[in-house]
Amino acid sequence: MSFVPLAISTLAIVLIAVGAVIALFIVLGLAGARARARSEAGSWEEAVRSADAALAQAAASDRGWHRESMEAAARTAIQAARPGWDYGDLHLVLVDDRPGIEEDRATFVAVDDHGQEARVVLAREGDRWSAERVD
Questions:
Q1: Nearest Cα to 94, choosing from 28, 128, 44?
Q2: What residue spans of 62-98 are helical by DSSP H?
Q3: pLDDT tens per residue, range 56-80
Q4: 3-state DSSP call for residue 74?
């Protein structure tokens, strides 16, 4: 029985090697993204709990902290910045209640089903909330 050596061109070897490296990067990238998502899962819950507690404290000392009006302002800002974007969750993640009312800030994060986020920073103008920026 005789064996015929398999002849492979140099180009084919290079393409196979490049394909293997790309596949390795994809697998490692997906593994890293999953690990990051697992490690940040608890931090979201903690940030939301902390912001809710700060909102309750701010509302107790100042009448302008109405969650419904703040959420409405955040939703309006998201709609203006990203028309047609369908997000599922809107989380209050930061309450910055400074002395007086002109420097009060609140931060909401909207998250869609694919994990994309939009961060909305609200600023207070009297008894009204408006978007300072949408990232």
A1: 44
A2: 67-81
A3: 777 756 677 888 888 999 999 999 9
A4: helix
Q: Helix, strand or coil for residue 105?
A: strand
Q: Give the gyration radius of the chain's Cα atoms.
A: 25
Judge if pTM exceeds 0.90: no
**Residues 6 or more apart whose Cβ sits within 8 Å of residue 119:** 107, 108, 109, 134, 135
* C-alpha span between 75 and 119 (Å, rounded): 11
Q: List pLDDT tens digits, range 10-43.
A: 888 899 999 999 999 999 999 998 888 777 766 6
Q: Are 111 and 117 in contact (CB under 8 A)?
A: yes
Q: Which helix (H) or strand (E) holds 64?
A: none
> Which residues, other chains included, contact 110 with Cβ-Cβ below 8 Å and sequence gap of 6+?
74, 78, 87, 89, 90, 91, 117, 118, 120
